[in-house]
Predict the 3D structure of the following.
Amino acid sequence: MNELTTAVIASLTSALVVTSAYHLLVAAPRAARMRAIVDQHDGMLGGGATRATDRLTALERDAVEAARARDGQARRIESLEKMARTEVPRVGFVRFNAFDDVGSDLSYALALLNGEGDGVVLTSIYSREDTRTYGKGVTAFKPATDPSEEELAAIAKARAAAS
């Protein structure tokens, strides 16, 4: 049994010597060379204190955050565009005297149009006895029914208003 123990210890010792020699002669120089290559790579990428892999991870994280922000902005722009299609940025207002026997310009025509020229023109006619209000649809800056001069003037003012 003593011989077996001696043989096992001799085998383990020789394995340890071979492993140590392999480490010193092969693995350690290769690991040192690999570290030098990684350091050189990091230096070429503008290294400094941060490693290239850390910078790449940060860039990937920033790209994901930018995509998320871009998606949020796209949704916001879409909702604003939907709102803008129905807004009334073009307003034209004309006051006029409908009847010779009534003083002052108490009658008016008011055009409320969106950017494409769709909307309504409202006309209020004032007389000594009563006041009447009329509304006409407008499509592409053209009234649906025969317009008065004042209604056409209000539509022209609205058309010239903010685009």
